[in-house]
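Subject: sequence -> structure tokens, single chain

Hey, anyone have a minute? Need the predicted structure for the following. Not urgent.
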Amino acid sequence: MTNERIDDRVRFGWLYSSTPLEILAAAGLTPVRMDAGSEESYTADRMEYAVDTCSAHRAALGAEELGLYPHADLLISTTHFCDGKPKCNEIFKEKYEIPFHLIDIPLRSIAEWILDSRFIRPVEERLKAILDWIEDFQIDGVVSFTHLPCRQGNGALYWIKEHLTEKGIVFMDLQADICDPSTFSQNNTRMAIEDYN
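Reply:
Had a minute. Here:
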């Protein structure tokens, strides 16, 4: 695929994960999710984006730079839980001079199923959900994956781990980057697994 139009009969809309596909389908557009991309699209360093920008967004920017997406007619993103998604679309909007719609989730009825995700709820609600699952399923250990560049996802991890430890729940935190394999540490992973046992 390239950024050039491949078929005048097909209109494409770019969106990120957690944005409902139904929105683009209702508009007669073919949805294209701009998720992590491939290892070859992880080109943020040569494009001079900040190294502490989420690698998933840097990979999407890299995939676009390499022409791995079809031409977009519309960009769409939501306001919930991550600022990086709309910022990427702002870059694409300026580059291609195409419409970008940012959906304010709290003001839309379609928000109900999105906001049901415990991942984007306040940390107290996230912890309560975890504790409920522990009780309901008689869990004695929790395994968590930390996507290192995700500030939103990792901000409360220490607090959650402390609360679970106080209750005698073993907690294993596996840390890496979903796009950058160089962040994976075999030794750290082995130690986390050994400590979990």
